[in-house]
Amino acid sequence: MQLNLVTKTTFYRKLLRTFLSQGFSLSKSNLTLGHFHTSLPVMADTSEAGKIAAANKAVDENIKEGQVVGIGSGTTIVFAVKRIAERNKVENLNLICIPTSFQARQLINDHGLTLGSLETSPDIDVAIDGADEVDSDINLIKGGGGCLMQEKIIASCAKELFIIADTRKNSEVLGTSWKKGIPIEVLPMAYRPVQLKIAQLLGGKPLLRMASQKAGPVVTDNGNFLIDWQFEGKHDWYDVDRILHNVPGVIETGLFLNMTKTVYFGTPDGQVIIKSKKN
Ligand SMILES: O=C[C@H](O)[C@H](O)[C@H](O)COP(=O)(O)O
Question: Signal peptide position in this chain (predicted)?
Fold first, then answer.
């Protein structure tokens, strides 16, 4: 069957709509339908290749035998733990891994790595973690997955923190790509006054984070609630962090200021861009 270009495009669009409306997703391979071999756009998660590339490079460049390693939380850290486990099988790295969350503890255990704690290993050589957004000064927003407090403690105990992310997280100014706000961990009994005080002191919208598969709010690994402070415009993040910490009931913020010098950003085609800060 011969189809001209316009007819072909319309046909493929309809086909794609029908597929998606039926709940199908497209894999990396092109579709072959009868004698039509289409070149439909690839619908795979393009951020995954970047996450893997960043994780692999950060692990290969920074994890060495005998270290105490802080293991972050989120979707990107999963690839770093996989890489650490692969290398561990071959190189017997003899690491002690300190988790930043329930998820991180499961990852460490599931990959046969040695689980440690701050009680027995308070001096961490290297921590690896993800981020929700990184600005030009390498300040970070973290806590999109609700794990900011233990992450910040582990990062503060580490000689070096390396951040891994796909390039969507790379911004000049915080709030450019991450629109969900600054995550703030709060004591449950204080959440309402904290919301009111944040609105009064900083403006914007301090929203209580609600759970999606449970009625009510998200409860962190530490038994607390989260407020996402949605803001507009540019801010002095050191001022904002100080103001937030002065509100009684605020336990920790997802602003990671001056905590890392190196971020590995993976591109959709698997390249890695390193963003670094001089002393
Ligand atoms: O609470 C979650 C953590 O701060 C994550 O490290 C952060 O949200 C980045 O997660 P992901 O690697 O899934 O983008």
Answer: none
- Which residue's alpha carbon is at the smallest distance from atom 7 of ligand 1? 131
Cα angle 25, 28, 33 (rounded to 5 degrees) comes to 70
The model's pLDDT over 150-201, given as tens digits with 9 standing for 90+, comes to 999 999 999 999 999 999 999 999 999 999 999 999 999 999 999 999 999 9
Closest CA to 147 of 226, 239, 47, 210: 226
**Rounded distance from Cα 103 to ligand 1 centre (Å):** 11
Identify which of 240, 163, 172, 176 has the alpha carbon closest to the alpha carbon of residue 202: 240
Q: Are 144 and 165 in contact (CB under 8 A)?
A: no
Ligand 1: residues within 6 Å at CB?
A: 72-76, 129-132, 142-148, 151
The residue contributing the CA closest to ligand 1 atom 10 is 74
pLDDT digits (tens, 9 = 90+) for 59-115: 999 999 999 999 999 999 999 999 999 999 999 999 999 999 999 999 999 999 999
First to last CA, the chain: 65
Task: Give me ligand 1 centre to Cα 164, in Å.
Answer: 10
Q: What is the DSSP string of 185-198?
A: EE-GGGHHHHHHHH
Nearest one of 277, 58, 259, 278 to 158, comparing CA atoms: 259
